Amino acid sequence: MFIGREKELTQLHKLYNSDKFQFAVIYGRRRVGKTAIINEFVKGKDSICFTGVETNEKQNLENFSKCILEFETGIEVDTSFSSFQAALEYVFKLSQNKRIVLCIDEYPYVARASKSLASTLQLLIDKYKDNSKLFLILCGSSMSYMEDHVLAYKAPLYGRRTAQFKVFPFEFSEVCKYFHNFSDEDKAVAYGIVGGTPQYLLQLNDKMSMEDNIKNIYLNPISSIYEEPNNLLKQEVREPAIYNAVINAIATGASKLSEISGKIGEDTCVCSTYIKNLVTLGIVKKETPYGESVGRKTIYSIEDNMFRFWYRFVPVNASIISRGATELAYSRIEPQISDYMGAVFEEICKQYLWTLLLKNKAAIPFTDLGRWWGTNPKTKKQVEIDIMGTSDKNTVLFGECKWTNEKVDLGILETLIERGNLFQYKNKYFYLFAKTGFTKGCIEKAKESGNVFLVTYEDILCLNGINQVKSKNGEN
User: Fold this and answer.
1) Do residues 92 and 134 lie in contact, with contact meaning Cβ atoms separated by under 8 Å?
2) What are the pLDDT digits (tens) for 82-131?
3) pTM over 0.85
4) CATH classification of 363-463, choosing from 3.30.300.20, 1.20.1250.20, 3.40.1350.10, 3.40.50.1370?
5) Rounded to an integer, what distance in angstroms lies between the CA atom of residue 190 and that of residue 293?
6) Where are the domains of the chain?
7) What is the pLDDT of residues 269-300, one digit of tens each?
8) CATH number of 173-340
9) CB distance 161 to 129 below 8 Å
């Protein structure tokens, strides 16, 4: 079952229908669904799809040759081209009179083994692009390689591509499409524990309870996800042990560079390099208070939900998990899930605001969203605002998100307004998000204010077409 990726497919089909030479670069993290997009795109089209493997040039050339000749003859043959240049030129000539899609998946594996491949492609593109109908796709999971050796200014292929697609994990609204049998609350938890990576989503069974799913994929040593973080790091980086230590330090509360450095026993300069690579991989995110430049307040957190959940709950329980004490491990995890979901709900609420913006329904046409934290000059205490966004120097929105089973009361709204008053904006709007709903006093205050929006989790589902029953407590 193929879900989502409408934007990517629409753009690919638009390029395809031009009937001119096209060269698209598709890249993104492993398991994010790049190959699935390509497979969906090439359906019903003349296509040669080759996947590189981590081997030598000769073996990849033989495999590539078989793909080309099987496409041409319809039968499997053992003949091989003498070189990648000969093989590629053959395809370019084939495509002079008809539209052909040539996809080289896991391109970094092939290019590392064949050092001249990029230059060869450059040569042939320049030679044939004006009279070719080839649709060339280079796809790769090594994002650093694709950015440095395919997309970068100094790369041989720079300036030849006609499009590039960086494939990201699904957002919450798309994740919900995977699950028809989960309750609304479990859909959010599903997003919280595995994120939006398609391969991880497929590990969840919506005919089982969320408790059983957690036990099955995180507390089961034979499950594919149980070893996934370690395996992914081994594929992506040279020193997985240090990267593992960095992620573990962040997941257990170290958020500043100095704290992370001290926890893993590495110099801050060295530590900074590892963190930068983790940010590139989409595992860690770097944050500064909204509206402030990079500085001492910079903090780091785990961006990928699967990594967040795994590093928070699996290592600390690894000993009892390995001994089959699944029930005991879950009993330690279960009381913390609601607290864990707080940050997940914040992200879901941000996505809701972006959807409102795209539908021209947001209170203000903000340009960006982020968190803010700092010191309240009156109380001298550290305070935080979950969501903040501005549209101009006079207009701002603030948001507070509460994933609790209790209805959000007036005090929470008053605190948000008080914190908003720390900023000297003329026009202020406030969004209060609640899992369950709001008390009568909170609803009345919102109506009186005129610049307060109360949004329930049900409203979020409704906006995305997931739940058609609109909450009575929310206002969109």
Assistant:
1) yes
2) 999 999 999 999 999 999 999 999 999 999 999 999 999 999 999 999 99
3) yes
4) 3.40.1350.10
5) 34
6) 6-167, 173-340, 363-463
7) 989 999 999 998 889 999 999 998 777 789 99
8) 1.10.10.10
9) no
